[in-house]
Amino acid sequence: MSHLAELDAIPQLVGVEAVTRRFPLDHNFVSALDSVNLRVAPGEFLAIAGPSGSGKSTLLNLIGCIDKPTSGRILIDGVDTSKLNPTRMTALRREKIGFVFQTFNLIPVFTAAENVEFPLLVQGFSSSERRERVAAALESVGLSARANHRPDLLSGGERQRVAVARAIVHRPALVLADEPTANLDTRNATQLIDLMHDLNRRLGLTFIFSTHDQRLLEHTDRIVRLTDGQVVSDTDVSFTLKSQTPIEGASHGQVLIASV
Description:
- The protein is α/β, with parallel strands linked by helices.
- It has a single domain, classed as 3-Layer(aba) Sandwich (Rossmann fold), CATH 3.40.50.300.
- It is 35% helix and 25% strand.
- It has a 6-stranded mixed sheet. It has a 4-stranded antiparallel sheet with strand order 2-1-4-5.
- β9 and β10 form a beta hairpin.
- The longest helix is centred in the last third of the chain and has 18 residues.
- It is globular, with a radius of gyration of 19 Å.
- The two termini are 23 Å apart.
């Protein structure tokens, strides 16, 4: 069964329908996205790839309800975001979506635990529920022992793991990660990728990345490529590789894709 046929059989978590996003430039407009269509099913581990300026971050911002399209519509878990006012858009973003940023975006005067707790404070969770969820989130990323350390006492890889814990602590339907490995060395990038893949497989979290990092592309299940604001390919890597012989030297669970 093809990937699109499989998607027809299950609900879609994200629907991008004929989306165009234009920005003013001098007296004209420039199109960051042009008639983009995309469907994402629950539980996917998907990368949006392409060169700088291809529209990756713009598409992620639209899916994340940070921006609205010029035309077309974005559906998140069946909700048409184009019909939401700013208050309801913010509520949807807080409840349904977690974010992981390239530069971590941690609050420097907060400990790791306080950074992870912050989204729960904003959403009004009780103190007991916050403690329970923060402890579980930090444990899931292997940082229970670093809970009381501020970001300046953490390595880059540990900071990004704190960011992942913060993104999942409110148990969102979707995690969006904008170039999450760009500022990490190979060892920390590999550990972060393994962690996110484990969360995807073990907890069923849906991940969408924007990236041009080959290290991340080699571990994703599906790659959507953008060029000049348009989708030029949509490849189910896990399906494609089922009939291929593993490349000698690849570690268990690792996929090496020569064509990416």
